[in-house]
Structures are given as structure tokens and as C-alpha cells.
Amino acid sequence: MKKHAGITLIELMIVIAILAVIAGLAAPSFNQMIRSSRVSTASNELLAAMQLARAEAIKQRRQITVCRRNAAGSACDGDADWSAGWLVQGPTGVIRVWEPPRGGLALAGPAGGVTFNPDGRLDPSIGAGCFDVLIDDTRPRQLDVAVTGRAHIEPDPPCLCADRPCP
User: Fold this and answer.
1) Which CATH class is domain 9-154?
2) 167 band by pLDDT with thresholds 50, 70 and 90
3) Which CA distances in Å does 165 have to 42, 129, 162?
């Protein structure tokens, strides 16, 4: 009698059914990981904008502002909802524009933006900047810009920014 090498149709169907069950179990945690990654990416992009603005303020010896962008991306828009994107702007015009983050991200920050003086510190009339970045049920991230101009990300803040309530 000849011996056949290979698999039967029933064996193949069983393997596919097992893979479908495993994929069904993994999908919810994968979606959570994607949302968490989006929050992390937006936080890091905003941090990059702060660092660029501070460096440009020192380099150009002028005030540089990071603010919520308008729809055209050509000027600041005085709103506390930064989900529409943001930009870095100097006295001679826009330096760089960031597009709106994807995926239902909520990003809130100071309505007037953050302005760095030529020495790298924040404008004293504005004070410190605080930004909340979150999506639905993910852990929020918070970006804080101190009066000294130093910006850092708090990956698991105990509370949201002062003008918004704690969860």
C-alpha cells in the first residue's frame, strides 16, 4: 500500500478554525495597542514641536509660538482643542505645521498656545503649558512645559491638567 504525504481537507479546516479563534481573542488587545500607540505618537510629536520652537527661539533670538492651527494651517487659532493639529510660528511666519492626529484622538491644551522667549524660557505672561492627550479608554498622557521652557511627557498622569477635572 502506498503512503500519501500531505494533509486532508478536514485537518486543514480544523487548523483554520483554531487560527480564527486565536485571532478573535487577540483582536481586542491589538486595537487597544493601536490606540495606545496613537496617544504615544501624538504626545511625542507635540513634544517635538515644543523642542523645535524653543530651539528656534534661541537660534533666531525672537519669540516663537506653538499654537493650535487654523483649518488652512497658515496661522494660529485660539482654541483649547488641539485635535485639529498645531504649528510653530515666528514673527516672520509659520515654521512648521503638524497635521491633525488620526483615530479619534482628544488633545487639549492652552487656548493661547505656548510662546518661548529668546532665552528659551516661556513668556511670563502666559505661564506654563499643560496638554492632555487621550483616546477613549486608553491611559492618557500629559505633556507639561515648565516656565523654564523644559517640556516633558508624563506617561501616566495622576490627574488631567488643572483646568479640566480628574478622572
Assistant:
1) alpha beta
2) very low
3) 21, 16, 7
